[in-house]
Amino acid sequence: MPNTTTPTEPFVQLKDGEKFKGLSVERNSGLFVKDKIFIGDTSFKSKDVAFYSTGHNNYANVGRKTFATQVADGKINLYSYLYTTTTTSMNGHGGMSTSTHQHINYYVQKGMGVACIGAKL
């Protein structure tokens, strides 16, 4: 399915519904960095953000610090979250075997502006 999203102004919408607009939105996350979303000089903890837009892509919080990318908008919005898992196991000859799998979760939501995600497909 091709992406059918429309670019928006950069914004951050908190889980309580409060919305902030600005010139740019950035997310800083990493192993040694606190996961925060910045709009101008203001920062928010990722766990407190329901939605944000960089102006090009829209994201929805689908778990404490997990954000899914919007891939379709309209009466029903569709978000996807891609992640990879790696499994290592011992084989019968004393060697190790590693396998990597990519997974994709889809989330649906009724229109933009609702402070929670609907259903996981």
What does this 3D model show about the protein?
With about 120 residues, this protein is an all-beta fold. The chain has one domain. It has no helices and eleven strands. It has strands spanning about 10-15, 20, 25-30, 35-40, 40-45, 50-55, 60-65, 65-70, 75-90, 95-110, 120. The strands form two sheets. An eight-stranded antiparallel β-sheet has the order 2-1-6-7-8-9-10-11, with no helix packed on it. β7 (about 60-65) and β8 (about 65-70) form a beta hairpin. The protein starts with 10 loop residues before the first strand and ends with a strand.
Features:
121 residues; mainly beta; eight-stranded antiparallel sheet; three-stranded antiparallel sheet; elongated
Q: Estimate the mean pLDDT confidence.
A: 84
The assigned structural class equals mainly beta
Are there runs of 5+ residues with pLDDT below 50, and where? 114-119
The rounded Rg comes to: 17 Å
The spatial strand order of the largest sheet comes to 2-1-6-7-8-9-10-11
Please outline the major beta sheet: 8 strands, antiparallel
Shape label: elongated
> Span between N and C termini?
15 Å
Number of helices: 0
Quaternary arrangement of the chains shown?
Answer: single chain
Structural domain count: 1
The arrangement of helices and strands along the chain is EEEEEEEEEEE
**Residue share in helices?**
under 10%
Please give a quick description of this structure.
The protein is built from no helices and eleven strands.
